[in-house]
Amino acid sequence: MPAVDKLLLEEALQDSPQTRSLLSVFEEDAGTLTDYTNQLLQAMQRVYGAQNEMCLATQQLSKQLLAYEKQNFALGKGDEEVISTLHYFSKVVDELNLLHTELAKQLADTMVLPIIQFREKDLTEVSTLKDLFGLASNEHDLSMAKYSRLPKKKENEKVKTEVGKEVAAARRKQHLSSLQYYCALNALQYRKQMAMMEPMIGFAHGQINFFKKGAEMFSKRMDSFLSSVADMVQR
Amino acid sequence: MPAVDKLLLEEALQDSPQTRSLLSVFEEDAGTLTDYTNQLLQAMQRVYGAQNEMCLATQQLSKQLLAYEKQNFALGKGDEEVISTLHYFSKVVDELNLLHTELAKQLADTMVLPIIQFREKDLTEVSTLKDLFGLASNEHDLSMAKYSRLPKKKENEKVKTEVGKEVAAARRKQHLSSLQYYCALNALQYRKQMAMMEPMIGFAHGQINFFKKGAEMFSKRMDSFLSSVADMVQR
């Protein structure tokens, strides 16, 4: 593992084999990071999906509890008690649904979104600049080859000057694209730590908020209600 | 809505039109209850399914966080901090996964299981006894018809006695099956209230336990860890 932080921009113009070799290390690292980020995003989206499904499921349950009243049972004896208890439970499930909905939104905004942005912005940028750098390097190689194939005769001076200008332009282009590419690779190293931790900070904050509010909601009030319902059922 | 609690067993033998009419009310009620129970079970199974998926999703996320260490990043600078933070988050997700797993088990045992048992035992019993009662009534009707079609001549006395015995046996059988059927319908009315409320009591107890333990877990210890990670990220 080389003890370097970044690709030096002043090395870009010379484009030495050492610089190229260091570049390949940064590229390998970016490739590993892209793969890992995709897997992490998948795992996080699964958690978000489960959270979302919990919202929909609690919504359906609450509706189903209210629906008892509308069944028009042929025998309705004792139903008032059941109806009012199921109404209460429906309200509890609604409150729970609010908490789940809030958590789902938080997970979307503070866990899934940052890692999607990291992928779409930082990783995609590196990959685009890699392609552009590859194209510019190719062009530069081609114009260099063209120049070196020119006959050494004096009467070709004019053509040589033309091709020389082409080579210079290609080198400027390659230099510029390598500067951009190096910058993006350096920035990726800089962003890496934060990109990995930020979504989990969002996740943890969401969970803390969820449990805090949930514990407040299911307070002693709920306990006493449950024991009175349990008494009723035992009667 | 008739002001009755139950089908009187002493009316079963006479099998009057009034008793038959009351029986149909109980049957209609049982039909409505069966439909409603199936819908409620479906909604509860959806909640259980979402809870179960949350267990699997958090398990996958925890593994993915640990996997960062095994990526062999080409550039490992500053990774020790990321690795140890992701390890800590993985432990947090594991603890959360334990809570989710416990809740899923409680929902299975105290919400889904009771309502499945109500359906498989009480509702299925009523439906089976309804079929048996129908068969026995049919047999009784057939033997009655056979008896009434017998010629009135004196020489048929022996046949009449035979068929008379058949009728009596069919009536005993029908009477017995109606007694069982009435009992099951009465028991269903008795169980109805409890069967509707018991799963929701289980649900509420599970949630209370979940939030209580979750709030304890995400205590101040977690808050201070998060702010130190946030500081690190900002540096």
Beta-strand portion of chain A reads under 5%
Task: Give the name of the CATH architecture of chain A.
Answer: Up-down Bundle
- First-to-last CA distance of chain A: 73 Å
Total helical segments of chain A: 4
What's the total count of β strands of chain A?
0
User: What is the count of structural domains of chain A?
Assistant: 1
Order of helices and strands of chain A: HHHH
Largest interface by residue count? A-B, 78 and 78 residues
Tell me about the largest β-sheet of chain A: none
Shape of chain A: rod-shaped
Radius of gyration of chain A, taken over Cα atoms and rounded to an integer in Å: 32 Å
- Output the CATH class name of chain A: Mainly Alpha
- What is the helix fraction of residues of chain A, given as a range? over 70%
Please give the structural blueprint.
The structure is a homodimer of 235-residue chains.
Chain A: H1 17-67, H2 79-148, H3 157-217, H4 220-234
Helix pairs in contact in A: 1-2, 1-3, 2-3
Task: List descriptors.
homodimer, 235 residues, mainly alpha, Substrate Binding Domain Of Dnak, Chain:A, Domain 2, 4 helices, 84% helix, AH/BAR_dom_sf (chains A, B), DP13A/B (chains A, B), APPL2 isoform 2 (chains A, B), BAR_dom (chains A, B)
